[in-house]
Amino acid sequence: MLVVDSACAAPVTALTTVTLVGLSPPTNVNSLLPVVNNDSSANSQIIALMFRPLIWIGTDLKIDWKQSIAQKITVSPDRRQFTIRLKPWLWSDGKPVTAEDTLACLRMIQRFGARYANDGMGGMPDIIDKAVALNERTLQITLKRPVNPIWFELNGLSQLIPVPAWRWKKYSIDTLFKLQDKAGMVSVVDGPYKLARFMPGRSIDFVRNPQYSGAQPHLQQLRFKMYTSDSGAFWALKSGVIQAGMIPHYLYAARWMVKNLNTCVSNGGYGFNYVTLNFTNPKVAFLRDVKVRQALALAVNQT
């Protein structure tokens, strides 16, 4: 899994041993821990290499059960209670990933409060009335009100990432926030990769996790090198210093300079445009006309 839209300058056969990926601004990595990070694209995807989510949402906006730690979710008839059964998943030290590890993540979200980057999304965490572990591999979450199950699964449950509860329980949420860039905090993981070395602002190295409970990744080693500019990353790609990196739009015409270029084209990045109309502004008379408001709404709905 690469954290940038990438162009690859090396033969595919070479990628099974080691890949060096160039990260250019604003994709700097400054956190290794779930929940307490700023939820930037770079941080989130780096963390996903080490910690797998309870449920993995695919590009088709459906749960990818093959990639998920959850085995199944059962919803009560009143649509308030979600019972989640976990797969027999292991941490890198051989201990099982448990329901309590998942609840530990929920408690982190609750204690982090308004600082949590996704606070309020999917109603989390205020929508939860009760959360308990029924056994080692089963947890049950009861909500304060009935919900659309698909909405809550995709937006709420998807935020839960099992964490090594027995290792982190001695830390307060404020301490975890302060330690989020410390390599020692992620010595035990359940994802496809383990952290080998982290030099903030410079590079981050991973090795394959032999205890990973999912399908073993093709890359044995993965290294991300951080650059201070897009052009710096491009020239490193051109010279072969890195094997994968982002080609910025203003250098796209120069892509021919990269030998043996294999390209993955994305949807153009994360972003959206919107307009907010203040219909109650007393100084704008025409907005008081319902026909004008209807016309504006109709026009907006066509975009």
UniProtKB/TrEMBL annotation:
Residues 68-302 form the Solute-binding protein family domain. GO terms for molecular function: peptide transmembrane transporter activity. This is Peptide ABC transporter, periplasmic peptide-binding protein. It holds the Pfam family SBP_bac_5. PANTHER family: PERIPLASMIC BINDING COMPONENT OF ABC TRANSPORTER. It comes from the Bacteria. It comes from Acidithiobacillus ferrivorans. One of its GO terms (biological process) is peptide transport.
